[in-house]
Design goal:
By secondary structure, this protein is mainly α. It has five helices and no strands. The protein has helices at 2-12, 17-30, 36-48, 52-66, 71-79. The relative contact order is 0.17.
Length: 85
């Protein structure tokens, strides 16, 4: 449910980041590795859509949940040129 809120926020951009920040923080700290496949799917979607904002939110959650194990996915995501800084 919370993962969906983050994805929905990123797609709709209806709320400010401050509204979703607590959810991102809670997800990153939850340690629920069962969310990883869904998060990776969302990350792939945002990379395909060239959404650096979506990418950044999802990688923050993945890094929090997986720690060092997320590094290959994070490197792959950062290697994609999305036109951001």
């Amino acid at each position: 449910m919370r993962r969906q809120a983050v994805v929905r926020h990123t797609v709709d951009l209806e709320d400010d980041y401050e509204d979703v920040a607590p959810v991102v923080t809670a997800l990153a700290a939850c340690g629920d590795t069962s969310l990883v496949p869904q998060l990776q799917e969302a990350l792939d979607r945002f990379l395909d859509e060239e959404s650096f904002y979506g990418r950044d939110l999802i990688v923050a959650v993945l890094a929090g949940i997986q720690g060092v194990a997320a590094l290959p996915v994070l490197l792959r995501a950062s290697a994609r040129d999305l036109g951001d800084d």
